[in-house]
């Protein structure tokens, strides 16, 4: 049964290399050892060497397996460290983004502050502003005084105009009264003249009558 297994391994491995080749040789040696009368010392030494070689190979495989296990553990630990470093790096990146946002805000505030300072520098000083305000107040007082003077003159002219209107009204009334008196005098004079004419006519008629008689 074992020979069939070894044979299948040899067929799968072709000519047989490495451990399969050693097992193949060891199997052949065991077959030759079945008949002790035909076994030589050289063959026995060869079998022992093959066994030592196989044991050495097994120790190597064990050490390789242990080393692979240690490397696997180291890789796992390294992967954990990498994951932790990635998490730390992500945290640092998030903090860096916050710091960048804060820095941009500070920069924006600095620009606005510089602009405000420039605007303040362009404005006149307090002393100059006070002087201009005093000048404006003085000019306003002068304008108010001029306005009062103009209003006084205007009031005086209004009074003069009112008095003139009264004088004109009285003069017009006087003229109207004089015209009325003249009209009455003319009417009375006309009536008087008409009366005198009537008397003269009567006298003339009387004279004519007397002369005719």
UniProtKB/TrEMBL annotation:
Biased composition (Basic and acidic residues): 188-213
Protein localization: Nucleus
A GO cellular-component term linked to this record: THO complex part of transcription export complex
Coiled-coil residues: 126-160
Chief location category: nucleus
GO BP, sorted A to Z: mRNA processing
Residues covered by region (Disordered): 180-213
Pfam families per record: THOC7 (PF05615)
Record keywords, A-Z: Coiled coil, Nucleus
Protein name in UniProt: Tho complex subunit 7
Organism: Oesophagostomum dentatum
């Amino acid at each position: 049964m074992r020979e069939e297994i070894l044979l299948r391994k040899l067929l799968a491995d072709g000519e047989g290399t490495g451990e399969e080749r050693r097992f193949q040789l060891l199997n052949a040696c065991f077959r030759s050892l079945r008949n002790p009368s035909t076994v030589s010392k050289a063959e026995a030494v060869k079998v022992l060497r093959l066994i030592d070689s196989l044991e050495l190979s097994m120790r190597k495989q064990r050490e390789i397996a242990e080393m692979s296990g240690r490397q696997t553990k180291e890789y796992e630990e390294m992967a954990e460290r990498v994951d932790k470093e990635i998490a730390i790096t992500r945290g640092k990146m998030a903090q860096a983004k916050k710091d960048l946002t804060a820095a941009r805000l500070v920069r924006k505030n600095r620009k606005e502050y510089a602009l405000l300072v420039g605007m303040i520098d362009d404005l006149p000083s307090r002393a100059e502003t006070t002087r201009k305000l005093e000048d404006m107040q003085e000019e306003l007082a002068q304008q108010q005084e001029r306005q009062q003077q103009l209003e006084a003159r205007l009031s005086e002219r209004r009074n003069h105009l009112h008095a003139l209107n009264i004088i004109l009204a009285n003069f017009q009334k006087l003229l109207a009264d004089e015209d009325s008196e003249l009209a009455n005098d003319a009417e009375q004079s006309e009536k008087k003249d008409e009366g005198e004419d009537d008397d003269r006519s009567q006298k003339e008629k009387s004279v004519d009558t007397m002369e005719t008689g």
